[in-house]
Every structure is written in structure tokens, then in C-alpha cells.
Amino acid sequence: MMDSSFQHIAVIGAGTMGAGITQHLLLKGHAVRLVDQDDKALARGVAAIAASMAEAVQRGIIDGAQRDAMLARLLANPSLADLSEADYVVEAIFEDLAVKQKLFAELEAMVPDTCILASNTSSFRITDLQHGLRLPQRVLGVHYFYHAAKTSWWK
Q1: Which of 15, 20, 44, 66 is most deeply packed, by most CB within 10 A?
Q2: Is residue 45 part of a domain?
């Protein structure tokens, strides 16, 4: 398990990168709330995580009990409403600056001031994402490469 003070972690966006980042965090021992406003995308993200973990079991990288424990720590949700206690949020939505800025403004209004807001963007400067926020210094860039979770399997 990853030694961290983070207790309430969320990943916003259940696409390829969001699902991979979520799986990476699950593999590191965290409970993760995966959020996507599109129910179908959320279901696809959860299915991709489960399929990747099934592959890991088949290849002997993890066992079935480990997979089950990781999946038990995953909570999929179509709403941002339950993030009031989040202390680390990773944004992994599509590359649209205005949409990302709106999301960060919404997150800033609902999470504690101590929450770290991270973006997996590969297109925009972090200062552009921070624009207009009350606490811009807590927004940072974290860039995962594809496939985010599979790099976790090797120590």
C-alpha cells in the first residue's frame, strides 16, 4: 500500500486515461471514486479496469483475492456531489480548455481548501487551468503515460 495522507481520492473522467489512473491508484492500495457524467462511459471505464485486472490475474501478476480487494475499493459515480471530503482529485477529461476550467472552478467550490487538484492534460499549461481560481497554487499537472496502471505492476 502506498504511504500517503490521502484518504479521499477521486478521478474525474472514466475514459482510457481516467480508468488507467484509477487502476494505478487502486493497485497502490487506495480507495478511489471514479466520476463521469456519462453513465455509459462510467460503465465502460469500470469494465476496462475489471478486464485489465482479470488479465493481471491470468498472467500471475496479482491473485484473485487482490483483484477482488482492489475492485471493492472502487466506487463509480456519475456525480461530483460526493467530493466534499476529497483531498486529491485527478482530472482526466477530454482536452477542452473551457470545460477543464469550468470543472476546476466547480471542484474548488466543493472540495476543502487543502484538496490537491491535479490534471492529466497533455495539451494545456497548468497556469491556464488555474485561471480564475481562488487558490490556483493547489492545481498541478500529473502526467500519466498509457497504460497508467500497467506501469504499476513492475516495481
Answers
A1: 20
A2: yes
The per-residue pLDDT for range 55-73, each reduced to its tens digit, is 999 999 999 999 999 999 9
Phi, psi dihedral angles at 30 (to 5 degrees): -90, 155
For residue range 76-103, what is the model confidence (pLDDT) as tens digits? Answer: 999 998 899 999 999 999 999 999 999 9
How many structural domains does the chain have?
A: 1
Please count the other Cβ atoms lying within 10 Å of the Cβ belonging to residue 82.
14
CA dist., res. 7 & res. 155, Å (int): 23
Cα 128 from Cα 68, distance rounded (Å): 39
- Is residue 143 part of the annotated active site? The answer reads yes
In a domain, 3, yes or no: no
The CATH number assigned to the domain holding 119 equals 3.40.50.720
Contact 90, 121 (CB under 8 A): no
Q: Are 24 and 149 in contact (CB under 8 A)?
A: yes
